[in-house]
């Protein structure tokens, strides 16, 4: 196996956490194949539950919830609310997400979709004349938030604690404060932290300078808002004073009247989370469940895995194995094909039919896979037509403008995974889209509003001449296409792995890299997460890669015609892609394991 450069711990252990039960993200190269996917040989694991989260304070709160008798859904609610406080730039009640829940007793997986929606007054051309930056920093990009209602629904149906109980740690941290980590400190230097006065007042110093690591951050307005919700439930957010404040806040714009948000009190009162079934596919004997539309994450992942399955990705032959030149080439080509079809066909299928079965069929994927040539980079692929394979009919299309939009986007968002003592698992990705979302904080209420509507096509694509359905064009009440991909892996019907990542459209590729590392390269969780990632998020195919991939493989890719968007030769692998938090369960022993990502402050806490 190729030995990649090992990432070092970048953060001290948080005080107060019992070291024996805490495994911060670390990396070591896998020894012999693990007995169970993701489990290092000799690693004992836990039986009382495991949390894997991108911030130690949120991990601590989740572990305390499990230790107090809560289940995975209770812990997930607690973690998400604390993340709103300690990673306010990444997710929160002003945003949305996908909570994937596996119920161990029922052996059933479901998704609480709390994706934001476009307001009733939204229209396909509402971003006309705006570039991404303009659109994404004004109220026009704010979708109707879903996180709070999604969590409330999950707690009511599958939790054992009240909303108020799960809010308590977040309220205390917001009120009493905490020392910000270097990730949040760095983000306060982002101009988006200071575009609007309420945001700058909280996340910049008195003189307007960024906050240093270790700064003690108190958020009294957020504490008050969460306390209001603890007493009144989601109703106080979706109706009444907080709803009025959200509507007023999203009327702010940096670009005049066109940039003002169109959300009304009726949009907030009418928001509904949806409970969905995962999309499912198979890879080398494992069953993979992931996000259905309105996310493109699961479908694109399953398509790419199917395209890659015929190659000896984990093999010892020259050019294969981790970081091998053939491995990286076929990964790039599968990503380019997957993203070409994603651009044309994926969106909110409550509004526009998505040919899920067609896209995942061998009828569709076999000719797509035949385009991959080990000896050269394929020409930029158009989307192909999955409808004949789905028993319908339709088109093809050019994705250039969409690719440019995807590449301009932020890569914030957050992912965490929890398993409880009963074996229930939650894999939850949530977001306010860009770091700091739209940049708009709701004055007096202390939470940031998302800019999720920029996940729609900024320029409409629907075209009857070409047959492009405009799957991801803006429409009233529609959910913007996501890339979020909380994922679960099963063997013989038992859940063995669960993970996900933030990172905009790179989410899908971080999950793909992790899947290949765990299944093909037989790495344990820590190694699979630490391994350098490789990503292409458009059919045109500009590669981004992390340090540690072998130079000779990168040089080979250049020779085949791959593009890195750099003037240097050989191109540098210096990207920072994703932040994967994962759990594994040994199906024989039931022992539970966790792995977290040192690209952020990933923290695992297990309970004996
Ligand atoms: N906000 C990231 C996504 O939905 O893909």
Q: Would you write up a description of this structure?
A:
With 608 residues, the chain is an alpha+beta fold. The protein has a domain at 278-405 and 484-491 and 499-591: Serum Albumin, Chain A, Domain 1 (Orthogonal Bundle). The chain has helices spanning 56-67, 72-86, 132-136, 147-158, 163-176, 182-187, 197-203, 220-232, 235-238, 240-249, 265-269, 297-308, 325-345, 356-360, 362-369, 400-408, 506-519, 525-530, 551-560, and strands at 22-24, 49-53, 96-103, 108-113, 178-179, 216-217, 274-276, 279-283, 286-290, 414-420, 425-431, 487-491, 494-500, 534-535, 544-545, 581-585, 592-595, 603-606. The strands form four sheets. An eight-stranded antiparallel β-sheet has the order 1-18-2-10-11-3-4-7, covered by helices on one side. A six-stranded antiparallel β-sheet has the order 8-9-12-13-16-17. Helix 2 (72-86) packs parallel to helix 5, helix 5 packs antiparallel against helix 8 and helix 13 (325-345) packs across helix 19. The longest helix is centred in the middle third of the chain and has 21 residues, at 325-345. The radius of gyration is 22 Å and the shape is globular. 60% of the residues are buried. Bound molecules: glycine. Glycine is lined by residues 413, 431, 433, 455, 482-484, 504, 507.
